[in-house]
Amino acid sequence: MTLMATSNHPGSQSSFINATNQSVLIGGIPFAYRDLGPRTEVPLVMFNHWGAVLDNFDPRIIDGLAKTRRVITTDYRGIGGSGGAAPLTVGEMADDAIGLIRALGFDKVDLLGFSLGGFVAQDIALKAPERVRRLILTGTGPAGGTGIDNVGSVTWPLMIKGLLTLRDPKFYLFFTTTANGQRAASEYLQRLKERRQDRDKGPTPRAFLRQLKAITAWGKQAPQELGRLRMPTLIANGDNDIMVPTVNSRELAKRIPNAQLIIYQDAGHGSIFQHPTDFVAKALAFLDA
Question: Where does the AB hydrolase-1 domain lie (predicted)?
Answer without folding.
Answer: 43-276
